[in-house]
From TrEMBL:
Ranges where the record places region Disordered: 45-95
Residue ranges of every copy of the K-box domain listed in the record: 1-50
Any one Pfam family match given in the protein's UniProt record, by short name: K-box
Bias kind Low complexity: ranges: 53-70
Signal peptide: none
GO cellular component, as recorded: nucleus
Coiled coil: none
Protein name from the UniProt record: Fruitful-like MADS-box transcription factor
UniProt cross-references to InterPro entries, sorted A to Z: TF_Kbox
Lineage: Eukaryota, Viridiplantae, Streptophyta, Embryophyta, Tracheophyta
Length: 95
């Protein structure tokens, strides 16, 4: 009976030790995953910031191009309108 108790005590001790090792490894893995998560969040924020900056630059370029092309179109329309102005016919001979 004493041998059974001793064996049970040894088994319980071993089981506790393995559980503690398992807990330690899981905590270590948790910390590693938290660090990786922080790094990924930081990268995401940086990429979102870069995407916003790129979008703003594209918007400025589009507005500049749109403004330039509308100015060109207005000049073209003005020139075209001037070409279509009807002048009275020029007659020769004193009329």
């Amino acid at each position: 009976e004493q041998q059974v108790e001793s064996s049970l005590k040894h088994i319980r001790s071993r089981k506790s030790h393995l559980m503690m090792e398992s807990i330690f490894e899981l905590q270590k893995k948790e910390r590693s995953l938290q660090e990786e998560n922080k790094a990924l969040q930081k990268e995401l924020v940086e990429r979102q910031k870069a995407a916003r900056q790129q979008q703003q630059q594209q918007q400025v370029q589009w507005e500049h191009q749109s403004s330039s092309s509308s100015t060109f179109m207005m000049r073209d329309q003005q020139a075209h309108a001037q070409q279509n102005i009807c002048y009275p016919p020029v007659t020769m001979g004193g009329e």
